[in-house]
């Protein structure tokens, strides 16, 4: 890790992602994802994936969380947690989410991404 993110903050970030996953609107894929982001000010914003029947308007959990943060005036993201429930392996932000997260991350620093499943944190 490149920042001073404590184990307590990481656990809280993953917990918020887990809680957000419960609100996932995913009637087409049944693939429930939750995410939470940590800002440089220590604020955490969470989100879940929201599907649409024509797929293109579907929005990933990471972008929901980021949109919530930006709409509240927070634009410096230092960490992101992603959690899915129905996999035996970890999921990672897609390319679109990585690009959007990069837009709100200090380009001189790395963005810490923490991935989990409910099997590890449930």
UniProtKB/TrEMBL annotation:
Source organism (scientific name): Vairimorpha apis BRL 01
Catalytic reaction list: cytidine + H2O + H(+) = uridine + NH4(+); 2'-deoxycytidine + H2O + H(+) = 2'-deoxyuridine + NH4(+)
Domain (CMP/dCMP-type deaminase): residue spans on this chain: 8-122
Pfam families, per database record: dCMP_cyt_deam_1 (PF00383)
Descriptive protein name: Cytidine deaminase
UniProt keyword annotations, A-Z: Hydrolase, Metal-binding, Zinc
Record CDD domains: cytidine_deaminase (cd01283)
Family statement: Belongs to the cytidine and deoxycytidylate deaminase family.
